[in-house]
């Protein structure tokens, strides 16, 4: 991929992220984040949440795969940040997806001197943004 | 319980070493539904010029949250973990994390801001190899919700 061939506003694709309760348990195990709000319905409600919610880091970590696949090398992502604005409640549907998050990305900026492209991710649940200012800076050869 | 306002500016020196293993990278990659072969196949990672399997872009959160736990579990902090919500996260990679890395993290509490009955706390983990080479800087904002928030 060549920086000169890229343009601001260009679409890098989209992906649909189906999330089940099992995904949250897997993420808890892989990340070491065992906060019960991500797997225990009773506990989540006791602390005034609508129910079990996805780890913000699960959503953030899964959404960036669109960028990694586009870049061709996971190590090309030199920085990545976001704000978590809305929780992603994941319903208990016996293994069926309890939430479906839509991810799409566009080129937000190009920096020829640094050799990087900024990818802006649009990450929504039922049409509402769950990640805000989700931006990844990618090194482009 | 109230958040200790004197936390701001506090830092926690590098703690236990985190050894990055191939299976840990594979397990994390599967957990975030990452399919890139460089997370799973050593030959594919080497073809891209890496020494070993490459970690996904948010893998450093494992090391960062272990460092955060030292603050959250500090009895002086006044933080109730069950009321912690992640508000913001940023990763800056100084070099890729690959299998075989031995990592440590130094934690800095950059800001503590009272919000309602709770507080917004910004922490920064400086992640390096045990030999002192900078690997990643992670910045987390956590909201500790007050009662009724």
Automatic annotation (TrEMBL), chain A:
One of its GO terms (biological process) is fatty acid biosynthetic process. GO terms for molecular function: fatty acid synthase activity. One of its GO terms (cellular component) is fatty acid synthase complex. Gene3D superfamilies: Hotdog Thioesterase. Residues 8-92 form the MaoC-like domain. InterPro entries: Fatty_acid_synthase (IPR003965), HotDog_dom_sf (IPR029069), MaoC-like_dom (IPR002539). PANTHER family: (3R)-HYDROXYACYL-ACP DEHYDRATASE SUBUNIT HADB, 3-HYDROXYACYL-THIOESTER DEHYDRATASE HTDX-RELATED. Belongs to the enoyl-CoA hydratase/isomerase family. This is MaoC family dehydratase.
Automatic annotation (TrEMBL), chain B:
This is UPF0336 protein G6034_00165. Residues 9-137 form the FAS1-like dehydratase domain. Pfam families: FAS1_DH_region. Belongs to the UPF0336 family. HAMAP family: UPF0336. GO terms for biological process: fatty acid biosynthetic process. It comes from the Bacteria.
